[in-house]
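Bench log. Compound arrived from synthesis this morning; before running ITC I wanted a structural hypothesis for how zinc ion sits in the protein. Inputs:
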Amino acid sequence: MSEESLNNPNISLAALKAGDRAEFARLVDATSNHIYRLALKILRDPQDAEDVLQETYIKALRALPEFEGRSSLSTWLYRIAVNEALMGLRKRRLNLVPVDEDPEEEDAHPGMVLTDWCCLPEDELLSAESRQRLDQAVDELPETLRVVFMLRDMEGLSIRETAEMLGLTETAVKTRLLRARLNLRNQLSLYYAERLTEKSSE
Amino acid sequence: MTEICNCKGLASTISEYIDGELPPELCAELEKHMSECENCTIVVNTMRKTIDLYKQPEPTNPLPDEIKSRLYTRLHLEDYLNK
Ligand SMILES: [Zn+2]
């Protein structure tokens, strides 16, 4: 988990376990925004994301006595949140394809757009409009690819951690990751190629 | 503008190459190919950049007030809501 993304002020696990409400409030304050955004990205529905947010802390409180602190508090909390969000997905029957069944293999190598847009300035690559396009491109990925890409590339989990969290083999994770990345690279290339054309005609 | 890359066999190794997880001999093979193939070089570079862009933290909007308020209420933390 990307520790930086949950800026975690030193929360005392001992205080939490002792039922310290103020400490619990500090934990919620430090982590709730990230957890909500994460759930929103997975579920794409504000109401469902809010449910996940609330359930995460309720489950965490319940599980706290057994938590031994082998991973950091934020990582632990975050796993609960991801699991909760994935359960939400399953409930909505947008089910993640089971382990050994890989979707649409025939499209594994789509034609590739070959524009080199790496030279575009950073403020253009990450303008508000560009960010919107990035979000849109992820949103349009098939569920099975989107979740893998999010956990691995956006949230910084390792291949193994992603596999564990999704109940997939590492090979399946790698395959899906590749397809997600190829797809996104293509989408972004189409978009930035337009920006390049606009620039050269200015 | 939209050319198609025909180096299909390589697509499957690009992702692992970028993650630094490709076995050394395949890595050498890909790098040799890239030195001769502009298309594959572009694909590798733009894919690396794509992943990079997605790793950039988004400008953080705070948790919407009404969501925060409902969360704190559900968790019986109302006393700490306005701190
Ligand atoms: Zn090539």
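What the model suggests: The two ends of chain B are 55 Å apart (CA to CA). Residues B 7, 10, 33, 37, 39-40 surround zinc ion (CB under 6 Å).
ITC booked for Thursday regardless.
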